[in-house]
Amino acid sequence: MTETKPDTAGVIAPPPLLYAGTLAIGIMLEYLWVRTQGFDMPTSLRWTVVPLFALAGAGLIAAAALRFRQAGTPAPPWRPTTAFVAQGIYRATRNPMYLGMTLIYLSLTVAFDAPVALWLLVPLTILVHYGVIVREERYMAGRFGVAYLNYVNRVPRWL
Length: 159
Prior knowledge:
Number of strands: 0
Largest sheet: none
Distance between the termini: 45 Å
Number of helices: 5
Structural class: mainly alpha
């Protein structure tokens, strides 16, 4: 009997779940256990940062999702990729969806006044890097070869 390798990136978990779960844990720790003094920032700045980061993040995710839809390939990394997308926002960053999720995460840490959730962004970023991005890049290189490797050399991972 032969084993067939699954045609997916093999990410450790859906990235939105990683972000949402880490944020929820950070907010719960903030309010139920650690109880920091919160962010020392004026209210006007807080309510400028929150929508600015949230809208920028949502815009990046929407622009990336649109490119995937136009290419006819699924966006979720746990599904097989059928096309290599390098147009639009993907000319500026290889991971606009994760950059967008990070911006939304940051906006929510400020909105909930939860520095503990902000601190958890460091291990979350490491987890996303090794558990998602590195696996996706290995999968994409295997699937699309030199074209993808040239893209990696041309376009930065985050910005």
